[in-house]
Amino acid sequence: MANASETVISDETLAKLGELPTQTLIDALWVHDWPQTMIHGARPLFPGQKMAGRAVTLRFVYHRQDILADKPKGEESPEYVAFELCGPNEVLVASAVGPWESIGGDIKFLRLAQREVGGLVTDGSVRDTAVLKEYGFPVFCHSSTAKQGPGVMQPWGVNDVISCGGVVVRPGDAVVGDDDGVVVVPASMAETVLEVAAEREAVEQVVKKELERNPGSPGKYYPFNDATWKLYEEYKQRGEA
């Protein structure tokens, strides 16, 4: 049974999703009754970075002696296999076993920098913050840490369905990050979300513009209601939306 979604998100769609705020993506999914898909604990390590890419997943499991013995060694170790699947339009999403456990640092992530990866996301932590800043790719994590990871957990699964920060991630899903956090857009919903989110963003800009011109309670237009859509149509007719 294949783990990746059959739907492949195009680079063009990915770029457009990356232009939208994460909260707008959440709202667009909610319109279609999808659960909220913000990865809890994944905060920007370096503020001001935007990220959008297709998910490559890496799953860590708790350390056990037999797990360590059976895990492939060297270049065949799961994390290095996952790294090689990443490029500028991919984001590595790693599920840790705890928020303070390290999924890697300087030497390992040098390879992600070489592959010009689109980003790194984890509900765990990372090491060597100063060096990661020099590498330049966006990093979203619980925190930075001095702790080593191997004594607590081992990389095990590559490109299977994982749970990261309370959210299900399938390989190939769109993973979008900004200063507010990281949102997962299921591949099967990417085009629909893009449509809905773009319109919602335009409507919200109209509402904000109207409230700046005529100060009053946001409750008149927000959450969206008949008055909101009437206002939006009026602004469109005037060429202001």
Give your account of this protein's structure.
This protein has 241 residues and is α/β, with parallel strands linked by helices. It has 2 domains: 11-187, Ribonuclease E inhibitor RraA/RraA-like (Glucose Oxidase, domain 1); 193-237, no CATH class. It is built from 8 helices and 12 strands. It has helices spanning 11-18, 22-31, 65-70, 78-83, 106-114, 129-135, 190-213, 226-237; strands spanning 43-44, 51-62, 90-95, 119-122, 125-126, 139-141, 143-144, 153-158, 162-164, 167-169, 174-178, 181-185. The strands form 3 sheets. Strands 1, 2, 3, 4, 6, 8, 11 and 12 form an 8-stranded mixed β-sheet that branches. A two-stranded parallel sheet has the order 5-7. Helix 5 (106-114) links the parallel strand 3 (90-95) and strand 4 (119-122). Helix 1 runs parallel beside helix 7 (190-213) and helix 5 (106-114) packs parallel to helix 6. The protein is elongated, with a radius of gyration of 20 Å. The N and C termini lie far apart (46 Å).
Question: Which helices and strands occur, and which strands form pairs?
Answer:
Layout: H1 11-18, H2 22-31, E1 43-44, E2 51-62, H3 65-70, H4 78-83, E3 90-95, H5 106-114, E4 119-122, E5 125-126, H6 129-135, E6 139-141, E7 143-144, E8 153-158, E9 162-164, E10 167-169, E11 174-178, E12 181-185, H7 190-213, H8 226-237
Parallel strand pairs: 2-3, 3-4, 4-6, 5-7
Antiparallel strand pairs: 1-6, 2-8, 2-11, 9-10, 11-12
Helix pairs in contact: 1-7, 2-7, 5-6
